[in-house]
């Protein structure tokens, strides 16, 4: 069987590893628009325009080249349990079941383990502990050694532009641009793993989606509390810990009106040295001023080094830290559609309409009240930073979901006869987690049982 994987990013790399585990003699052709230098939207030359509101998911959250966004991400691998949603639909119920069944096996592929229990800390909140990938191994393409697999033929600098299909169910070929020349190749099976927005663009351009818009949503995030004196709230310590070069973090998750929210700690916001460490570790970005940041604040730098190297936990500057509340944006009106504008490749870009749902203020208020209740019950020393939540100023984070509305896993696996689309956009809900890893057990189920 000849298999095409369209995109060498996070999901594309995971798919290839799972394919080779099942079929050691697989023939895989991997298409990627970039190469080993990972680029953002502007650098690669893609086009998106923002209509209404501010959403940086495309300009700041998309990365192109080997490893895709996993080259720049946090690398926190989280999955769902029954605690995550009060009323999950059938698709999400099945994702939860697969997550529970295969979480350990999936995490073992990254040599990590997460056996921390989820604790109900109040009637409305439970905790979820996250284990991050090692700071030194975040890029899935290199972690799975895709460049060294003899089964994989890598076509770099090949921009997939559309898929050919006469009946809308069977994919007959992939049309791509190589050095400005349009080419086509045919395969038995296709994995569309070009990232949420570009995969959606390809489906729209190929008329494989019957509508001309693809709706989506994402999380909204806002700094809400300053916490003083202790990192412990009730019986839970929220300070990040280190296990090897991996971080262990904790959050509290709840839900109001079918919208999930999560309350998560952020440390050292006013500590320039810590900001420099994050820039270097996550963005592989170095500036000489980072060295100067060491000398600007020697006592805190020494405290940081002691905490990380000896105590194996996050340093908390001035014993003060922040709680952010992130919610699922309850928007019904955010969508992407093909733009009239063309990108550097001469291909139609995307117009993005992103609205913050009118119920968002109410959800934030209710989530904040739940958090205040809990902080009070635990006698935490906190300061409310903003009485009124202005959701227009929320930072956004890059977990697009709700693009395809699959009813159940069977429909997801069979929407196309010889193609599986893999992106967080396939999830109906994102819940209170960074959801990338929640789909990995689903990919394995497909490859092991259906392919
Ligand atoms: C700063 C940041 C931090 C994050 N932290 C976390 C986290 O801690 N935990 C978490 O779960 N999620 C996190 N995320 C989200 C996570 O990065 C994404 O959900 C995930 O990487 C999506 O994987 P993907 O395979 O869909 O896309 P990508 O990894 O972006 O891969 C897409 C690939 O397709 C290629 N491609 C694109 N278009 C084409 C085309 N037309 N033709 C050929 N190739 C193409 C690209 O070059 C790229 O390699 C974070 C995101 C960001 C931006």
Structural commentary:
It is built from eleven helices and 25 strands. By secondary structure, it is α+β, with helices and mostly antiparallel strands. It has one domain (2-268, 316-450): FAD/NAD(P)-binding domain (3-Layer(bba) Sandwich), CATH 3.50.50. The strands form six sheets. Strands 6, 7, 14, 17, 18, 19, 20, 23 and 24 form a nine-stranded antiparallel sheet that branches. Strand 17 and strand 18 (246-256) form a beta hairpin. Helix 6 runs antiparallel to helix 7 (289-296). 45% of the residues are buried. The model has no long low-confidence stretch (mean pLDDT 93). Bound molecules: flavin-adenine dinucleotide (FAD). The site of flavin-adenine dinucleotide has 39 residues, from helix 1, strand 5, strand 9 and helix 5. InterPro entries: FAD/NAD-bd_sf (IPR036188).
Kindly list the characteristics that best describe this protein.
451 residues, globular, FAD/NAD(P)-binding domain, alpha+beta, five-stranded parallel sheet, binds flavin-adenine dinucleotide
CATH architecture call: 3-Layer(bba) Sandwich
Low-confidence stretches: none
Overall number of domains: 1
Structural class from helices and strands?
A: alpha+beta
Overall mean pLDDT score? 93
Task: Give the helix level as a range of percent.
Answer: 25-40%
Termini Cα gap: 10 Å
Number of strands: 25
Biggest sheet, open or closed, and with what strands and sense? 9 strands, antiparallel
CATH fold node name: FAD/NAD(P)-binding domain
Task: Tally the helices.
Answer: 11
